[in-house]
Structures are given as structure tokens and as C-alpha cells.
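Interim report to the steering committee. The following record documents the input for Alpha/beta hydrolase (283 residues).
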Amino acid sequence: MLKLQCDTRLIIGDILVQYHIFSTDAPLMITFSPAGSVLKPSQVEEGCSAWGFDFFKKMGVNIISFSAIQHKHWFICPQLIEFINNLSPQLEVFPERLGYGASMGAFATSLYSSQLQLDRMLLITPLTPSTEQNKLITFDYCAQHKGNITIIFDPLCQNDRQHALRYPLNTTYLKLYGVGHQVIESMSQVGYLKSMVLSFVANKVKRSEFEKAMRARRNIERYYSYMARNPTSKLTPRRRKIIRYYFLMWHLKNPTQFILKWKKKWQKSLMKRTDLLVLSPKY
């Protein structure tokens, strides 16, 4: 049985499960982590929280979070399937069950939506695993889902668009143009991710508010760098020249951002190299 009023951590295979239940009279949020938030074993040992757990606990929302450990396994494993099947009947006491995930996490939210009895889902740039991994499961893009699904994606990103449009026809689509797969990162950078998620919890998502807030994407580097790649292959020379001009203006107005960007890339590359050295066998 789920414990009340306390933090609980479990390791299920290569997955960290963390939850806090304030009251069974309030809605329950269930999250799955994206591929970019895979935890290292050392982080789990140090007590790092599962993706989304700290935020929803701080907001006073009942939360069960699932985070991948070490590998981008798309949450496809027999141990997790068994755990969720055992968890399912315990979730019936909640008045509403919500699901939230991005990319790999959006796939997992969709995959287990029936077993978790999700009433509403917020999926950001949902993807699917490789054909080889797909052989282990049956995934129908929530074709039988009876609740509400909200998907946020960039229609200019062909891969994301193909996945998003495979969901049921009654899905609500919120489109963030010009940022590619980095939708959740862009929403965070313009300061709207928290508002969006809390609006979803309260079932008060408004398209007009979303579209108005997303105009601020013109203030972030990602918008210009992605559009400069000509993602649709339809940019005219004149339009490409205009985008490059505004991209240059953005850098002139934000000179330190260029340095910080490359510093982060360098640090990330260094961390990867260090991990490889640690994991490589010694001769």
C-alpha cells in the first residue's frame, strides 16, 4: 500500500520510483523522466530526486515520479510492468490521476496510461523507441484512451510532428514553432513551463495564454539557431538572410550567452569523457 505523508524511494530494476502522498482526496500526478534527465547510480546513492518529484511536492501535489537510471531504456522492463500492475488498484482511491512527461517520458506516460488509469495527460514532444525495443511491447499511441490528452510540440520538427499526430483525433495540440525538439527547455527559458504545468494540474490550460506566452521565444537563442537551419527546407534566400540578421542582433544584445553556451557544452563533453574513463576497463 502507498504510504501517506512521507517521502518514499524505491529502486525497480534501473528505475528510481519516488513518491509523496499528501491526501487521497486530491488528484495524483505521475511523471516519467526524459532521456536528458537519466540519473547516474552515484546520483541516486547521493539522494538525488526523481524527475518532477521536488517540484510537485513543493506545490503540495500528490506525486509519483519515475526516473531512468544509467540507461535510456524507455521504461520498458518486466520489473516495472509488474510494479505498475500491482500499483494500479491502489490508484483508484484518487479522484483524478494525471500524467506528465517529455520525450522518452512522454512515451512512458502514454505506454502505461491504461494501467495507471490516467484521466488527463500532458505530453511534451513525445517520441517512441527504436524498432528493436518496440518488439518488447505493444504501443498504439493511446488509441483507446478515454481521457484528455494535451500535446505540446514544434510542427516544424518533422520527426516530432509525425509522432504527435499519431495520437487520437480528439487530442489537444499546442504548437510551439521554431524550437525543434527543445520545447520543454524553451518553455522553461521563457519562464512559462511552471505556469503551464500548474494550469494543467488545475485543468485550466488556455490556448490563447499559451500562444501569447510563446511569443517570448524570440528572446531566446534556440529560436534563431533552429530557424537558421531551415528545418522545412522552404526558406527563401531573403528569409534566411533576415533570420541570420536577427540571430546576429540577438548575440550582440546577449554577448555573455554565447560564452555560457559553449562553456556548458565543454563541461558536458568533459563529463562524458570522464565517465568513459571511469567505465573503461583498466589494462
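The mean pLDDT is 90. The committee is asked to note this result when reviewing the revised timeline.
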